[in-house]
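Tutorial, part two.
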Amino acid sequence: MHDVGGQEPPRAAVWFAGVVVRWRWAIAALAIVGTAFAARYAATLPVYTDFSYLLPPSARSVKDLRAIEKRARVIGTAMVAVESKDPVAREKAARMLRDGILALGPSLISSLTFDQGAARKFGWDNRWLFASLEDLEKARDSLRKEIDRAKLEANPLYVDLDDAPAPTGPDAAAELRKKLADAEAKKDDPGELVSDDKTLQMMVIRTAFSSADSAKDIALLEGLEGVIADVKQQVPGTDIGVAGDVVVTLAEHDAILNGMLIATLVTIGLVGLALLLFYRSILTVGALSWSLMVGTIATFALTRGTIGHLNLATAFLSSIVIGNGINCGIIVAARYIEELRAGRRGADAVARTFAGTFKGTLAASLTAATAYASLVITDFRGFRHFGVIGGMGMILCWISAYTVLPACLAIVERAGKLRPREEPAIGRTLERLVPKRLGRAAFVILWLAAAAGGVTAWFLTHHPFESNFRNLRTYNGTITEEERWMGKVDHSFGQGISGGFVIAVPTRAEVRPLVERLRALDAGKDDKHKLFSRLNTLDDLLPADQDKKLAVLAEIRGMLTPDALDAMSDDDRRDALKLRPPDDLRALGDDDVPEELAWPFIEADQSRGKVILAMSGWGYEIWNADDLVRFSDDVRRLDLDGALLGGTAFVFADVLRSIERDGPRATMVACIAAILVVIVIMGWSRHAFATLVCGAVGTVFMLAAAALLDMHINFLDFVALPITVGIGIDYAVNIAARDRADGPGHAREVLHTVGGAVALSSYTTIVGYGTLLLSQNRAIRSFGGAAILGELTCLTTALVLAPALLWVLAERARKRRAK
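Running the prediction step on this input gives:
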């Protein structure tokens, strides 16, 4: 057994240990009461999975999006599709669905588009203005000829001496009459949204609430599930599905929440099992777990009070805080048990535990906290909030490890319930695994680090970022099913029913000139080189050239005088009257468009027409990061005179820019902060030098391994880099601190004492990250894999390179003293 006696602990350690032991019951009671209130408060912490919450509110894409959300009246959409080979069954099921959906009430359903009835009625009621100007002019000219001929033929002195001209084509007036007849035939046909093969029918639901409102999303989808189940039971042989942003948003939200819960539970289970195997004492593990719970719950209660929510980057921090925050508690508990084995009890054991672990755990926790805190300097909220929460978690767990944990251990020890077992075998195993020739081991590892540095430099300079945004999405059964139905809808009715983005302008008068300008940019270009594949406004729902048409229609009306009609035959008179426009014709305005058609262009204040709906050109792959940034830049370069741009393309582009700008800056700050913390706490000594070298080598090995494994950096992976810097210091500094406490010549033996605790600390952190691999979100899984890689490289470096370097440096110091 290694001697832990050494010198008497400092007075400050003795005093503080006395306070903790004397007030142990009060500390335990305060922790219970405080944690109960904190847990209740933290439970109200909402989770926002929208990418816009990763950006600062000052980002242009976020400001535009929030402004548009305030203006928009209809925000969420869902498409319900019915599929059946039997047209009768399909139509019956669709009508039952429509009635059931409308019965869900206005609190969930703003409106529902079931057919084209409103569009056809609007077209028929205003058929004269929807006829093309060319058709009207041709009909006018043709009618004028008919009237002139009819007048001549009505004159008894008229004799036609010319041969009748050969017909050159269909009569224009007759053509217009035919088109009007066709429109009349369709006006009573609702024109349900049915695919060409008659197997798929669709309806579009619009909600009055944002799809980000998870409570309303749940209520709507639960209501739809009930209606669908009832229809399927009554109309067998039909397949019914739901697609749209409401489905995707809720699936993303539920996946994050379920992932948080699963990750936390699995982390607690696996960490608890490892602690039991290491300490072989249920009471010790219980005290350590309770201390960790106090620090973790306090962290998220403070998060609720400061930040107010979790986002996509911070939603899974619970498992990370547990896995990483327990590290200092493991070191403290292991040293306390070691003191008990040496025969010390009560305040003396606590004081020696404080004295032997304080600097090492403080350096480790502060380094980890500063690694997280380095993210606070960034504008990217995904980084900044991660840094705030992670930093608070490390500090609060460290405070709990030196207050709640020793108080609980003292309670158990005073009751005679804590009997230390023999030393765990892991320490002796690690000691045997370290190479016998420590100098050669240090030389080899440093040369490997130099080679890894070259690989790292190549990796970082050859576009290491993830370019496929599909690899950042959540994938589960719900989203796969949604994509299946969306694919069917797109195939049957054309793409563009959902998606795209919004251009919102301040006034209605600005819309037409802006659209004409944007369409002129793409004039004459093929589809792959167009900036926009679609631009729609309220003007598209109104007849074009209304003033010119009204003038032509007035001419037609003026031509059909009683005298002109009397000169015609009965059949010609009937046909001519069909072309006579009503007397009350007028130009249609925005308010004349039925709400069923105008809804995308109606805002919360009921104003109309200040919104342009757009889709990116076919030459842009919107899931490709490079194309996405290129499209965003191309649109913003147009200088749209104060127009707001709302869409995920602009948010994603700003996310990528923030990562490229803030990621390297945060990593640099983490490195500088880690160096300062180690030097301030450990002093400028060989122990500080060895610690810093190990941190650098572990980080370089992690990046080189990522390059060799062809891993790409996304907005979460970048968080793993400064954290790895902190971890590299965390493990090495505890090895160095114990070596300094035991004195030179114990570089190998230090693994016997603290090596097991360091390995256990790494295991708990790896478990915290490893549970992220269970997430359905690919970005979170990618981060978990990158962080585990950093854990493995930093742990290996701390257990092998740290003892080797400490031995080499001690030998050099000994030789200098000998000289």
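The radius of gyration is 37 Å. In part three we will examine how such features are distributed along the chain.
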